């Protein structure tokens, strides 16, 4: 079995450290300790904590399963949106509701994390919004989803409702907080 590189160990463990402690709460020492590597090895692979955090955000976003949004899944637009968000809720539950979604954690820190992290978070949210907007547009064309507002705005609303619920769940330990908000938001989108 091939050994995981030091860089691989840092990347593998940094997501958990950032999720649990936030960007500012996580030190390079916390990350290297979790990875089981010497602190000095960090700077052989990353120029800064910001560079690693941006990579973690991109990695997290890249691992998001968008397959259930595809038009060929057989579901209606609202069913596909619900399936996608339920998968996201399951993903958060699997890593601990009390720590929330990595994007929420990193987004809440972006005013002071630097441009690299801020850009990675913004790009992740923009891509997510665009993918949801395409499904919403399909639902608007079929008359299933209200056309009172632009699809892009409705997509942003869904993310905001879901992630706001995830933030509430993080604060209260309620594993259903994000799905409760999602249910209300999806009901509001129905035509």
Question: In words, what does this structure look like?
Answer:
There is one protein chain. The radius of gyration is 18 Å and the shape is elongated. With 191 residues, it is an all-alpha fold. The chain contains 9 helices and no strands. It has 2 domains: 6-49, Orthogonal Bundle (Arc Repressor Mutant, subunit A); 59-189, Tetracycline Repressor, domain 2 (Orthogonal Bundle). Helix 1 packs across helix 6 and helix 5 (77-95) packs antiparallel against helix 7 (115-142).
* CATH architecture classification of the largest domain: Orthogonal Bundle
- CATH topology category name of the largest domain: Tetracycline Repressor, domain 2
Radius of gyration based on Cα positions: 18 Å
Number of individual domains? 2
Specify the CATH class of the largest domain: Mainly Alpha
Q: What is the number of E strands?
A: 0
Strand composition percent? under 5%
Largest sheet: none
Q: Note poorly predicted spans.
A: none
Overall, the morphology is elongated
CATH homolog superfamily of the largest domain: Tetracycline Repressor, domain 2
- Which secondary-structure class do the elements indicate? mainly alpha
Helix content: over 70%
- Report the order of strands and helices: HHHHHHHHH
> What's the overall average pLDDT, rounded?
90
Number of helices: 9
Gap from first CA to last CA: 54 Å
List descriptors.
Arc Repressor Mutant, subunit A; Tetracycline Repressor, domain 2; 191 residues; 2 domains; mainly alpha
């Amino acid at each position: 079995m091939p050994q995981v590189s030091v860089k691989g160990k840092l990347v593998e463990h940094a997501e958990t450290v950032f999720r649990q402690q936030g960007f500012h709460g996580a030190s390079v020492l916390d990350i290297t300790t979790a990875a089981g590597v010497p602190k000095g090895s960090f700077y052989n692979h990353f120029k800064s904590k910001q560079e690693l955090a941006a990579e973690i955000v991109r990695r997290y976003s890249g691992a998001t399963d968008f397959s259930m949004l595809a038009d060929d899944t057989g579901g209606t637009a609202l069913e596909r949106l619900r399936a996608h968000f339920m998968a996201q809720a399951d993903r958060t539950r699997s890593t601990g509701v009390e720590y929330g979604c990595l994007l929420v954690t990193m987004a809440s820190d972006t005013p002071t994390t630097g441009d690299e992290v801020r850009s990675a978070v913004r790009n992740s949210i923009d891509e997510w919004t665009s993918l949801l907007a395409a499904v919403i547009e399909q639902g608007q064309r079929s008359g299933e989803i209200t056309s009172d507002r632009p699809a892009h705005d409705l997509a942003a609303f869904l993310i905001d409702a879901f992630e706001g619920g995830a933030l509430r769940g993080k604060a209260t330990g309620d594993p259903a907080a994000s799905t409760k908000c999602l249910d209300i938001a999806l009901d509001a989108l129905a035509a």
